[in-house]
Design goal:
This protein is mainly α. The longest helix is centred in the C-terminal third of the chain and has 21 residues. The protein starts with a helix and ends in a 12-residue tail after the last helix. The protein has one domain. It contains three helices and no strands.
Length: about 70
């Protein structure tokens, strides 16, 4: 079974490449038991969404008048 360091590495790598089925299975098993790594994965997902929105110019902090 994966430890947290290996799980977070796979979570990071999964953002850039498709994981092998063995990696996905090991990661899924680890995430079922580890709330810290589940939270890390959710945070990475949120950061990726924010970065994509920012790159597209969808900054929610500015209003429609451009102020």
């Amino acid at each position: 079974m994966l430890n947290c360091q290996e799980a977070t590495r796979l979570l990071s790598e999964s953002q850039e490449r498709t994981l092998a089925w063995q990696e996905r299975l090991s990661l899924k098993m680890h995430l079922m038991m580890c709330s810290g790594c589940r939270n890390f994965g959710k945070q990475m997902h949120t950061l990726r969404q924010v970065a994509h929105a920012y790159a597209k110019g969808e900054d929610e902090r500015t209003d429609k008048t451009g102020e």
